[in-house]
Amino acid sequence: MALSLDEIPAVDQHCHAFRKGFERMTPQMLRQSLTEATDAQVLEQHTPQTIAYRWALRQCAKRLGCATDEETLVAARNRSIAQAGSAYTRHLLDDAGIAHLCVDTGLQPEHYQDTDTFAVSAARPVHPILRLERFFEEQLPYCTSLDDLVDQTRQTLHALRNDGTIAVKSIAAYRIGLALEPGDPAAARSVFDALHQAAIQHPEHVRLSDPALLDFLLWEALRCCADEAIPVQFHTGYGDPDADLRTASPLHLRRVLEDPDFHDLPVVLLHCYPYVREAGYLAAVYPQVFFDLSLASGHAPSLAEQLFEEAFALAPSSKLLFATDAHSLPEAYWLFARVQRQALAMVLEKLMRNNWLTAEQSEGIAHQILWRNACQLYGLPSLG
Ligand SMILES: [Zn+2]
Questions:
Q1: Rounded to the nearest whole angstrom, what is the distance from the C-alpha of residue 297 to the centroid of ligand 1?
Q2: In 3-state terms, what secondary structure has residue 259?
């Protein structure tokens, strides 16, 4: 029996906002939304040669009713959005079945829409997620001591939900790797003093990447999140070349996951590729671990089914979440959501066919992954 997930709404539990000026798409913007490459030569010569790019062109061209070459497609798309206005974006996200968007607000705020603008553009509820490293960096020029910064962090996390923020996110994988440790206050203090001075001089250039300080600050933040029951999303697995994939396996989070203080701290592993089996294992054995297949399922669409199969092999269906990790262009949310829906349907059908699941169980699992697990985890209103 064919399984249709089209009518089931989804919570996109991790994405970014539209890029300012997304209404005028350039080939460069389209390429950048389909790869983690940042090198100009790769983007120019090689990104168009990927499966993801060729597939995206065909999907978008079909929707617009135009030819599949990049130049024609970009022109047709920009004409279409100029004519249809906000309905263009609304229809894409409706077609993707995305009911709610949970947005990491820490990605280059100068280039991306703020939360309120994004909610208007997307025409649906947007729930902010605070990026911890950016928060620390923004506080650095104003906090005169490490204790002061820890105090600010505590106060902010204590009041986090007041403005509707639902979670925090860490990009430790981009800075020090995921083998987080409690950190030593004396070592953290000495790094803080130097960085504080540098931040006063050049607040726009602050980059927190010293393990002595970041370990300490993240551990303090995790303690507050545990006290306040605030879910913590971690970038894991692949990202742009600034992330060291060698130290981005979620297995490195062992010290956090094993700490009795963090037993009830919800930890959400984002992306996970190529460590999907590892993430599935962690979700199977630790009560507090959740994960998603965002990013990779969109950038490696031909692998999306396999990713779901690997995830399902060990992980309870109560632990897997739906997310696109899309940014910049509404087309990216549409493409990434649709490929995941299709892959999820195919895998559930296969599991039914091979008698691992009943039809009723499969449907229940689809609801769990698309919205139910996220609504429970982040305290969002039920979509059922
Ligand atoms: Zn992201």
A1: 13
A2: coil
Nearest in space to 78 (alpha carbons), one of 16, 122, 22, 19: 22
Q: List average pLDDT for each run of 10 residues in the chain, which is 384 residues long.
A: 86 98 96 95 96 97 97 98 97 98 94 97 98 97 97 98 97 97 95 94 92 98 98 96 94 98 97 98 98 94 97 97 98 98 97 97 98 98 94
What distance in angstroms lies between residue 360's CA and the mean position of ligand 1's atoms?
A: 33
Report pTM.
0.97
The sign of the torsion formed by the CA atoms of 250, 262, 285, 360 equals: negative
**Which strand (E) or helix (H) includes residue 235?**
strand 232-236
Q: Which domain holds residue 286?
A: 11-378
Question: 110 exposed, middle or buried (CB, 10 Å; 0-12, 13-18, 19+)?
Answer: exposed
How far does the centroid of ligand 1 lie from the alpha carbon of residue 270, in Å? 8
Report yes or no on 383 lying in a domain: no
Tell me, in angstroms, the distance from the centre of ligand 1 to residue 14's CA.
6
Between the CA of 131 and the centroid of ligand 1 the distance, in Å, is: 10
Distance (angstroms) between ligand 1 centre and the Cα of 302 equals 21
Number of domains in the chain: 1
Q: What CATH number is attached to the domain comprising 44?
A: 3.20.20.140
Q: Which burial class, exposed, middle or buried, applies to 336 when counting CB atoms under 10 A from its CB (0-12, 13-18, 19+)?
A: buried
Distance CA 26, CA 40 (A): 15
CA triple 284-287-293, angle to 5 deg? 55
